Amino acid sequence: MRKKGFIVADRDQLLELTALFKTVIKRFRSEWAKGIEDDMTVTQFRLLQMLKTEGQKKTMDIAEALMVTPGAVTGMADKLIASGLVVRKKSELDRRVAYLAITEKGKERAEELLDKQIQTVGSLFRDFPDEDIEHLKRIYNNLLRNLGEKE
C-alpha cells in the first residue's frame, strides 16, 4: 500500500497520469460531439438534465452544481434559450431574481441526448468487466474526496 504523499520517483507516473487523464477527457468530448447536430456540449447537456430532473434553478445554483462560472451559465442559457430548449422566468417574489426552466422541447432533447450519452459511455466501457467498473468508480470517488480536501 502506498504511503501518503509522493516521492521523486513518482513524478514520471504523475505526469503520465495527467497526460492520460487529459487525453481521455478530450477523446470523450470528441466522441460526444459525433452525431450531435446542434453542437450541444456535454456541459449544456448536464444543464438540461439538471433542469429536467430538478426543475427551475437560479443561475448561481446551476453554476455551483456544474462547477462553472455564472457567466458561463448565462452564455449556455442564451444558446439554449435561442434554441427553444430553456426559458428565463422572473421570480414572483423578487423581480431581481430569474430562474432557468426547461421547455417541453428541451425535455425531448434531453431524453435524446441521454440516449446518446448512454450509447457513448456504453461503447467506451463495453469490454470492461464489472469489477473494473467498480474499481474505476472507487478511484473517481477517491479523487473527488482528495479534491474536496483542497477546497
Structure description:
By secondary structure, the chain is mainly alpha-helical. The chain has two domains: 1-34; 39-149, Orthogonal Bundle (Arc Repressor Mutant, subunit A). The protein is built from six helices and three strands; from the N terminus they run H-H-E-H-H-E-E-H-H. The protein has helices at 11-33, 42-54, 59-66, 70-82, 104-124, 130-149; strands at residues 57-58, 86-90, 98-102. Strands 1-3-2 form a three-stranded antiparallel sheet. Strand 2 and strand 3 (98-102) form a beta hairpin. Helix 2 (42-54) packs across helix 5 (104-124) and helix 3 crosses helix 4.
Briefly summarize what is shown.
Pfam families: MarR. The protein has 151 residues and is mostly helical.
How confident overall, as mean pLDDT? Answer: 87
Count structural domains.
Answer: 2
* Low-confidence residue ranges: none
Q: According to CATH, what is the class of the largest domain?
A: Mainly Alpha
* Helicity level: 55-70%
String of helices and strands: HHEHHEEHH
Q: Beta-sheet strand percentage?
A: 5-15%
Number of strands: 3
Gyration radius, rounded: 19 Å
- Could you say what the CATH topology of the largest domain is called? Arc Repressor Mutant, subunit A
Q: In order across it, which strands form the biggest sheet?
A: 1-3-2
CATH superfamily of the largest domain: Winged helix-like DNA-binding domain superfamily/Winged helix DNA-binding domain
What is the molecular shape?
A: globular
The assigned structural class equals: mainly alpha
Distance between the termini: 26 Å
* Major β-sheet annotation: 3 strands, antiparallel
Keywords: DNA-binding, Transcription, Transcription regulation
GO molecular function: DNA binding; DNA-binding transcription factor activity; transition metal ion binding
Protein name: MarR family transcriptional regulator
InterPro entries: HTH_MarR-typ, Iron_dep_repressor, MarR/SlyA-like, Tscrpt_reg_MarR-type_CS, WH-like_DNA-bd_sf, WH_DNA-bd_sf
